Amino acid sequence: MFERIRAFFSPPPPPRLPTVPDGRRYYAIGDIHGRLDLFDALIAAIEAEIAAAPGLDHRIILLGDLVDRGPDSAGVIARTKAWQQTRKVRVLAGNHEEMFLAAFEKPEALRHFLKHGGRETLLSYGLSTKQLATLDLEAIFARLPKLVTQATRDYIAGFETMIRAGDYVFVHAGIDPSCPLSEQKRSDLLWIRERFLSHEGPLEKVVVHGHTIFQRVMDCGNRIGIDTGAFRSGVLTALVLEGDQRRILQARANDGRPAEVFHGDRA
Asked: At how many degrees (to 10) do helices 150-157 and 73-84 cross?
């Protein structure tokens, strides 16, 4: 009798925290947007952590938007391919990868691409500033297949749209809150904003996403936004997940000197 009364007045147990599979550590990296300097710094920090914990199964997920706006999209793509040769690195497609590939299909799509950061991408693939300024749209369109090989385009076209791990799901932009994960549209996974960002209720899994820039990691319980605007802020963020723990790594530009990496507490 007294045990039942005591149990009735006892506080409920704390809610279970979201987890990733045992024995694994995940690094989710936000929108890189051509900032190879920050990407290289973050890779070095992650590699150092991997070397210090050889017993763990390390997984790296890039949340898309590797290209555009920053100065070295070509370098970021090449560095990603090289990293995949030595580590378990999976890459999500972002809306900027979609615009990049569409630019090879018709001139009007190229025009849209150039207006949204594509100029910097084409410069990184060898188009000169003079050519970009003097060539008309049709002439640039004709040069594209020579600038970016079919192999590179096929590689980018193979980026994924969703990755699941335990209680988390990783996407570029977000999800449609009204649909189960199994019924999500590619367009929402790459482009959605307001319908997802304004949703305050629980979701099927905790959504880790980029696409929308925040000044700091935005942990809203049902979602975690980690795009800290690397191309303009000089801050590239990685969310580290292990068991039920979360923390952050950030590569930050350093006034012309090599980027520095900062280790944060629980996100």
From this structure: 70
CB contact at 8 A, 216 and 222: no
How far apart, in whole angstroms, are the C-alpha atoms of residue 267 and residue 206?
Answer: 13
Question: CATH assignment of 20-263, given 3.30.70.2190, 3.10.20.600, 3.40.50.10490, 3.60.21.10?
Answer: 3.60.21.10
| Residue-wise pLDDT tens digits, 122-141 | 999 999 999 999 999 999 99
Residue 134 CB partners (closer than 8 Å, separation 6+): none
Question: Which tokens sit at 261?
Answer: 């990496």
The total of other beta-carbon atoms located within 10 Å of residue 51's CB is 8
> In this predicted model, what pLDDT tens digit does every residue of 20-78 receive, in sequence order?
999 999 999 999 999 999 999 999 999 999 999 999 999 999 999 999 999 999 999 99
Q: Please return the burial class of 194, using the count of CB atoms within 10 Å of its CB with bins 0-12, 13-18 and 19+.
A: exposed
Detail the DSSP E strand segments found in the chain: 24-29, 57-62, 89-91, 163-165, 168-170, 206-209, 218-219, 223-225, 235-242, 245-254, 257-263
Question: Confidence class of residue 7 from pLDDT cuts 50, 70 and 90?
Answer: low
Domain ranges for the chain: 20-263
Pairing, β 223-225 against β 206-209: parallel
pTM exceeds 0.90 for this model: yes
pLDDT at 217 over 60: yes
Place of tokens 């555009």: 68
User: What number of CA atoms fall less than 13 Å from residue 203's CA on the CB side?
Assistant: 29
Instruction: Enter the tokens of residue 251.
Output: 């590569």
